[in-house]
């Protein structure tokens, strides 16, 4: 029901109407005429009774409040590496847009200005990650928290990312790298790099391995916390031998590669960081200055493909939910096929 309160002033009379419907907080608005007040009240009552009413006052939530809820309910359910990245991006977004900025005030033009400024200092890929998190925050706020707001990111153009860099080692380069890793003072570097070259695992996946994940009899390991779904990774006999040797010195440590530092939160969030200094030194000694740790994954994937592994099997080993990422390696397969066809020339068939 609606109730009108008439206020007579020196210059004019106003009408404040209050709408009360069971299940909703009361809502009021002031008009210059009684007719306008009644029309508005009728519309509000109809929306409430049909459960279509969205209280605009609920949108008055700050970015800080929204992200606190998002990090607690959404981010906390993800892998540790993803949690750290999203918390870092959320902190950045709150600083750039303002912690106390209301969600409705973050408009498409505001987001576009942020995008353009960020592109002056960071890569397009980094900006896309930041916009993706902001967009998902608004999607959650709108659809699940039922806030009467629009997603401002949806209306702007996101920066295009150039095709990913694919660099892989040649056989002699891989041999040089492993030789230098074996000579490293970090005695776990060699088996760590070896497993990357033989399995195509992500550096963080391999670095954070625990012994209970490895099945020596079946020559496989299971990854539970991954970028996509849990998956089983087959292991070569060379890797099994290296892991068996490593286990002899493991004592009571549950981690395969991390030692005591494995208990720290940072090490578990970004485990591969524990190998970067020694890896960089080995890389320099092997005269491979352009090599990144992630390139070992590309190297293993390309070798599997050229050895005859089909695309779908390779996607399963790599942990890709779609074939799109794996198709980046098809140019290698095409080159391999050309070499095979060229062998016909040696047969002298004309």
TrEMBL record:
Q: Which InterPro entries match?
A: CB, DNA_brk_join_enz, Integrase-like_cat_sf, Integrase_catalytic, Integrase_recombinase_N, Tyrosine_recombinase_XerCD
One of the GO biological process terms = DNA recombination
GO molecular function terms here? DNA binding
Instruction: Tell me the ranges covered by the Tyr recombinase domain, including all copies.
Output: 164-342
Q: Pfam families, from UniProt?
A: Phage_integrase
Keywords from the UniProt entry: DNA integration, DNA recombination, DNA-binding
Which positions fall inside the Core-binding (CB) domain? 61-142
Q: Which domain of life is it from?
A: Bacteria
Kindly provide the name given to this protein in its UniProt entry.
Integrase family protein
Q: Per the UniProt entry, what species is this protein from, by scientific name?
A: Desulfobulbus propionicus (strain ATCC 33891 / DSM 2032 / VKM B-1956 / 1pr3)
